[in-house]
Design a protein that fits this description.
Two copies of one chain form a homodimer.
Chain A (H helix, E strand, L loop, with lengths): L4 E2 L9 E3 L21 H8 L2 H7 L5 E3 L2 H9 L6 E3 L1 H7 L5 E7 L10 H13 L4 E6 L3 H13 L2 E7 H6 L1 H9 L3 E5 L5 H9 L7 H13 L4 E3 L6 H20 L6 E5 L4 H15 L6 E7 L4 H4 L1 E6 L8 E6 L21 H8 L3 E6 L4 H14 L5 H20 L3 E7 L7 H9 L1
Parallel strand pairs in A: 5-15, 6-7, 6-9, 7-8, 10-11, 10-15, 11-14
Antiparallel strand pairs in A: 1-4, 2-3, 4-5, 12-13
Chain lengths: 433, 433
């Protein structure tokens, strides 16, 4: 029997997160305050959990996953399978030397990898005595994941959701409400910042910068609340390494090893989570794997960005971080894969890019060819990827076709970071209209 | 560590389907032709696969699952986990003696248990040299599952979809098209029957009866096509026993055994798939488990139906089958859990009901209390059930609350037959408007 599904047992779930920071060949540039204005670093201390700030700057290579968090990850369905894509290989007609694999984060309860860090963050919030978690969301994947985690742990959850994005996604809004979250269209009437903008314009479309401002204002005035972030930061990427650590065990089971790893990249938590454990092995000289980030031409931060200090957000609330950035005020064309629209890549990924460990490719904003690759994958393998994940599929399919033409061996591993059940309108528009 | 997820390894996937027919205490009444009109039994021979007709009347207690079908079931993610619902138990505040378990068919690629039989049927179609599978669909779950299976195996798939249902579900339509299916709004211009109706009224809303007529007409005139059905028939229920067979192994792993099994029931394939292997043990005197079907008051066939010969469809295309039926021309109130709106229960389940092995309960058509139970489940366990599955959740929650009040021990197992990501509009309407 040809077994496409590669599983590790439940008790094979990793017991430690992987922290690449101490293994880096040069120190990770630290965040800093801008020359003018209030101290952003000082504000971080007030709005984040102390345990998260500790993880953020930890020099420990492995950090124990608390037993309660492991229970939550198992509840969320982990470990998730790795698949050998026999059926896709067959459709592509690649030779025996080309092996395709994909990891199934689409099996997440909310539909994306974001739950991996949401569960950890809400657990630590609860442990530090917080009663409420606060965040902002753009595409909505992060807001759903935090709402889910808060629901499970019985904490309150407030999500400031960019109004125009929220109005386009009534189903995802219903999902957040089902989990019990309190969702505010941003700008809202709950904060000074929001009231100022919405009193001038009741149907103000909002922006991620405004939503961040509202979330931070709400956190600062609430004793028992904490602010949570779903990407970019070291500790978020570290929580996501559960993906790559599982994949490593799964490759051992089938006695193979990826020669090329592909994940889509907006801010970098999905890409980092999948690749960092393998990148660390490369830094020790143990592999020659290529690590390829799949991006959109709407936000090709690793390709067209400059490696310099920049704010993480439009409204300049965050400290300055050294990142490949298109500029924190950059205007980015709307695309269906909204999760890939971020102006900069996480500091960790950016450093690795500057060291030429990480490669990147970007696909056109029309998205037709990306959605076509997703259609091929869906018919061959049966699973519907999120539009973001479709970028990884496209990059993998391109590489497989190149190898078919030019010859060569490869084990290509890509990550299906989420499912597309809440994105079928986008598929309809791109492929069938 | 408290492990909520109970898994069997991939190579623990059952190797045989379970056929309860030879174990029944009295013979299953055979389908028969009505006194008047053409022979429906004769027509079955022309539109169904011979291997399916053979399975339909088999007296073998166990039927080997072909290796290729087992590969497909593994590709689709099987075996699926059974969960101990620790978090739901905690929210309900039940005592230590009350244990809740649920099986996760919501992990299906298309979102429901229907893929289990779709993969088998399309495999056998391919083996018998067919190039195309044809069906009709109402709610759309069966159409998606058949489209998915045909996509994987490279067969063509034609779905006649009741027009008014299709128009309400653009996302599910996009999903079927992504799998490569050819979807016709019924009545269509492709068949004589359809043309007759749609020429008189271009926006004819259609009905399941009309869609069946179209699918059968299309099959009869096509040499290399076959007609497929997603519920009611013996072989369909048998393909679904993979659910119960897996659950049986999973209960062995945790050294427990269900004292009450609950599944929602429309035609009966989900209920039968989950319970039949356990019901067979009861027929051998090995357990005293209760088997409870969760229904809607819109279609309480096991409760208000009569046990008699009736047609399986409005248009009288099928042979007469002995079933608990509300009458094949019964009008049923629309509900969001559309998959539960069927006038009769499968002959197998109906016989077991007449023998008092199967119990049934029905919930009000307003569906509010059912959706409330689903909300509780979603917040406690993190998974969003399909509206149909929410009926099983509701029945399980009611029973747990009763035990909390009255005392007593129980191991309650229920089946989450599908996910609700394509039903969030229904959740919004029932809970938030």
């Amino acid at each position: 029997m040809r077994v496409s599904q590669i599983r590790i047992p439940v008790d094979g779930l990793p017991t430690q997160w992987f922290n690449i920071v101490p293994a880096l060949p040069e120190p990770l540039p630290r965040p800093k305050d801008p020359d003018e204005g209030p101290s952003r670093l000082g504000q971080l201390q007030r709005i984040f959990l102390s345990s998260m700030l500790e993880q953020e700057s930890s020099q420990q290579p492995l950090i124990a996953i608390p037993e309660e968090v492991r229970e939550l990850l198992v509840q969320a369905g982990r470990p998730r399978p790795l698949y050998r894509a026999y059926r896709l290989e067959q459709r592509l007609g690649v030779g025996r030397g080309v092996r395709l694999y994909y990891k199934r984060e689409d099996l997440s309860p909310t539909g994306s990898h974001k739950v991996n860090t949401a569960l950890a963050q809400v657990y630590f919030a609860s442990k530090e005595g917080k009663k409420r978690v606060i965040t902002e969301t753009g595409a909505g994947q992060w807001g759903s994941a935090l709402a889910y985690a808060a629901g499970l742990l019985g904490l309150e959850c407030t999500v400031y959701w960019v109004r125009h994005a929220m109005e386009m996604k009534p189903q995802r809004l219903a999902l957040m409400k089902l989990y019990g979250a309190d969702v505010a269209a941003s700008p809202s009437s709950r904060t000074e910042c929001g009231r100022r903008l919405s009193s001038a314009n009741h149907s103000h479309p909002g922006s991620l910068g405004i939503a961040i401002s509202e979330a931070i204002e709400d956190t600062l005035r609430s004793e028992d609340a904490v602010y949570c972030l779903g990407s970019v930061l070291n500790h978020v990427l570290m929580h996501q390494t559960i993906i790559g650590l599982e994949a490593m065990k799964q490759f051992e089971l089938v006695d193979d090893y990826p020669t090329l790893m592909i994940a889509c990249l907006g801010g970098g938590s999905n890409f980092g989570g999948f690749t960092l454990p393998f990148i660390a092995e490369q830094l020790k000289g143990k592999n020659e794997t290529r690590f390829l980030a799949a991006q959109s031409e709407a936000a090709p931060n690793l390709i067209k960005g400059e490696y310099r200090y920049d704010f993480g957000d439009y409204a300049e609330h965050t400290p300055l971080m050294k990142m490949f950035t298109l500029g924190h005020k950059a205007e980015m064309h709307p695309i269906y894969a909204d999760g890939l629209r971020y102006h900069a890549a996480a500091p960790l990924i950016s450093l690795l890019r500057s060291l030429r460990v990480v490669e990147a490719t970007a696909f056109p904003m029309g998205e037709r060819e990306v959605f076509e690759a997703a259609r091929l994958f869906t018919q061959a393998e049966g699973f519907l990827p999120a539009p973001e994940s479709a970028y990884a599929v496209k990059a993998a399919v391109d590489e497989a076709r190149r190898l078919k033409r030019d010859g060569g061996e490869a084990a290509i591993a890509f990550n299906i970071s989420g499912h597309g059940f809440l994105d079928l309108d986008s598929y309809e528009k791109v492929l069938f209209q």
